[in-house]
Amino acid sequence: MRKIGLLGGTGFVGKPLINRLIKMGWQIRILTQRREKHRELRLLPQIELVSTNIHDQEELNKQLADCEVVINLIGILNEAGNDGSGFRKVHVELPEKLIIACHKNNIKRLLHISAMNADAEQGKSHYLRTKGEAEDLLHAAQDLQVTTFKPSLIFGEGAPFFNRFAALLRVPTPIFMLPLAETKFAPVWVNDVGEAMVKTLDNPESYGQRYSLCGPKTYTRQELVAYIAKLIRVKRQILPLKEKHSHWIARFMDKLGPTKPFSLDNFHSSQVESVCGENHLLQLGITPRAIETIMPKYFSNTSTPRELYSTFRQLASR
Questions:
Q1: Which one of 3, 78, 89, 125 is most buried, counting C-beta atoms within 10 A?
Q2: How crowded is residue 109: how many other Cβ atoms within 10 Å of its Cβ?
Q3: Is residue 279 part of a domain?
Q4: Count of domains forming the chain
Q5: According to the model, what pLDDT value does residue 1 have?
Q6: How far apart are CA 140 and CA 298, in angstroms?
Q7: What is d(CA 184, CA 214) in angstroms, rounded to the nearest whole number?
Q8: Which range, of 6-20, 111-125, 137-151, averages the lowest pLDDT?
Q9: pLDDT: is 116 or 11 the higher one?
Q10: Residue from 177, 302, 180, 165 nearest 227 by CA
Q11: SS3 at position 177
Q12: Residues of the domain holding 74
């Protein structure tokens, strides 16, 4: 049976992708640092959940030894500090180690999740520059057939953006201050992202390609937050903050540690519209779904105290 080495398989994007890969008959080895937190995945057929330090080169070489394909979904939106070293460790140094592990094990195929606007030279933030640097490193690697996916904001069950703002909107306050409210996104369904990945997995025409993935509609951040408020049935007056005030908020929140809801790096990333010049989902034969057709079923009209507690724990990444 053909085997895939999957990094980031326990996350938001990974779980729906796993279901598709299982249906295709793949055996999947998921590398994770917290195996005990994901017992439900161990019950799935064709899944091998391995606890390992993915940043250790020898461990990475060992765990990918009998894999035919590697898929890397790992990324972070914030780091503990603010000097870019946290982003570099995850977004650049890990892909460098993956290249070595692939060469060591004669693995020819690698799929990689990047980000819209990722650019090693012109990226506005540490996040976008390190994502861009990783893309360039992977695509320049010899004897490696790489396909990169550059999604806009991803939505679906457990979507971090939606859950974060739902939790914040439930805090009882008459005015909700929103930084960089006019930033535009073209939200893409997590299942459409997964479908794009499985469609290209064995397709030689996708080798070397960098696919931009967007949903069918464009929204400002304010429109998305207002829609989330509507979904959870709370009334809030959303106060869009000017760029100067957004910067102040980001500087303040940057001191809150890795769980900060809006950092200076987020501020710089959000200065660029997250929309597609060309939506490659259409090129791949995928009709993208809009948030209005997917998200309502994931939000109930009311929440119990226990559900609210769980939401705030997720917001705090605990």
A1: 78
A2: 20
A3: no
A4: 2
A5: 78
A6: 41
A7: 12
A8: 6-20
A9: 116
A10: 165
A11: strand
A12: 3-155+187-213
